[in-house]
Amino acid sequence: MNESHDLIRVREVMKTEVDIIDGLITVADALKRMKHVGNRALVIDKRHADDEYGVVLLADIARLVLARDKSPDRVNVYEIMSKPVLGVDPAMDIRYCARMFEKFGLSLAPVIEGGKVIGLVSYNDLVLKGMVPGL
After folding, report:
1. Residues 51-66, buried b or exposed e (16+ Cβ, 10 A)?
2. How far apart are the first and last CA of the chain?
3. DSSP string spanning the chain?
4. Taking a C-beta distance cutoff of 8 angstroms, is the pair 112, 87 a contact?
5. Mind listing the pLDDT tens digit for each residue in 8-46?
6. Which of 73, 95, 101, 133 is most buried, taking the most CB atoms under 10 A from its CB?
7. By C-alpha distance, which of 128, 129, 60, 121 is closest to 86?
8. 10-129 to CATH, choices 3.40.630.30, 3.30.365.10, 3.10.50.30, 3.10.580.10
C-alpha cells in the first residue's frame, strides 16, 4: 500500500466476535465454551482492575497440550496462556499494525479500547480485509 490509498484502520478489519474466558478453567472447558473458532484464539479476562489480559491460541493448545499428550481436563488455561498481551488500538493504521506484528512476532492481537477488549485482529484480517476491498 502506498500513500495514495485511503487510511484503513484496525476497527474496519477486526473481528468483533471474541471469546473472553476465565484463566482458571480447564482447556477442555475453554474449548467447549469457544463460540468463535474462526478467531483461532481465546482472550483470558483480567482477574482485577490492575491485571492484564492474556491470550491462548489454538496453536498453543496443540503445542502445549495435545503434542505433549497432556489431558485438556487437567491443564488450566492460565498454565499455557501468554500474558500480558500487546493490545492494538482500534484507530491504528493497519500498516502500523502489520509492522507491530512483525516486530514482536505476533500473528493476532486483541483490540482494546477504553481498557476493554472490543475485537481481535490477525494478519489474515489485515491482508484479506485491508488489502482486498469487499472481502
Report:
1. eebbbbbeebbeebbe
2. 17
3. --TTSPP-BHHHHSB----EE-TTSBHHHHHHH---GGG-EEEEPPSSTT---EEEEHHHHIIIIITTT--TTT-BGGGT-B-SPPPB-TTSBHHHHHHHHHHHT-SEEEEEETTEEEEEEEHHIIIIITTSTT-
4. yes
5. 999 999 999 999 999 999 999 999 999 987 888 999 999
6. 101
7. 121
8. 3.10.580.10
Contact 101, 4 (CB under 8 A): no
Name the residue type at position 132. Answer: V
pLDDT digits (tens, 9 = 90+) for 68-106: 999 999 999 999 999 999 999 999 999 999 999 999 999
In sequence order, the 6+-apart residues with CB closer than 8 A to the CB of 6 are none
